[in-house]
Design a protein that fits this description.
The protein is an alpha/beta fold. Helices cover about 40% and strands about 20% of the residues. It has helices spanning about 5-20, 20-30, 35-45, 65-90, 100-120, 170-175, 205-215, 230-235, 245-255, 285-300; strands at about 50-55, 60, 95-100, 120-130, 140-145, 155-165, 190-195, 220-225, 240-245, 265-275. The chain has an eight-stranded mixed sheet with strand order 4-3-5-10-6-9-7-8, with helices on both faces. It has a two-stranded antiparallel ribbon with strand order 1-2. Helix 1 packs across helix 3 (about 35-45), helix 2 crosses helix 3 and helix 5 (about 100-120) packs across helix 9. The longest helix has 26 residues, at about 65-90. The radius of gyration is 27 Å and the shape is elongated. About 25% of the residues are buried.
Amino acid sequence: MHNPALLDLLHTFKMAAQFMSFTKAGEALHMTQAAVSHRIKRLEEELGFKLFIRLTRKLKLTKEGEQLLVTLTDSLLRIEEEIEDIRRNDLRGLLYIGISPTFAQLWVMPKLARFQQAYPALSLRLRIKASALDFRYEPVDLGIYYGRSDYRGVVVDTLLSEQLVPVCTPEYAERHQLYDNPERISQCLLLHCSECLDHADPRAEWQQWQQGVGILSSKSCTEYFFNHYHMTLQATLQHMGIAMGRLHLVADYLASGALVTPIQQHVPAGLDYTLIYPREHGARPRYQAFIRWLHDEIMHHTFPSGVVSPL
């Protein structure tokens, strides 16, 4: 695969696949049909598999040829984008961001207008997914996910470490006399959320907090379960019960007074909001722009009075 002529052969293959004709590919490349056919044969010998099925008066890609064409087209597009970045030395093009649902909704979206104002020529595509994307199979440039920072083969940049603290509306706290009375939680409806924690016990966050502050869990509690954190917060805002707050996600609700922390003790979640990306992406200008913007927003992230920042 170190043959210096390989790029020329791959380009010839792409043109032949585009036209599905050695003759038309030759015309586009200013060479004869025989020369194109000879190049394709050399490439097949180099690769060790057939690229075309030669039928009467037409060509058909083999399965291996189809797979190579998809990879080659994507790779050439990325090369063209890289060249354009270098040539213009500016911040244009498209960034494809994979991101966990509620962090996108409650943390990123309220701040995203500032990114757009700073980089008006950059386009963003956001893909919402609770589980981490696999860069080998999905065309995502950067990913932001909630979980343990044990990814392999990629750059791992821990953005925020999460803390857990119970939250409810002021009305609910008063009704159940929760202020500084943690034992009264056993009389409440507990709201559980498993977003980004699909492989854990849905009660895991409450159990972790109770163990951290030394409160025995009660098996007599009524419970509601959700797999989306924003749904959990909506139930909480409707005075239905008390939820285990992820502090970075509920900070704005606490600042506005819509939610309160009747029991101030919070414990480390042991999980982080982590930025991950392939190492080769790190030096490109538009990737660096988004990474710098995230870190600037984190530096200016404030917490409401009485709530200790977990940064």
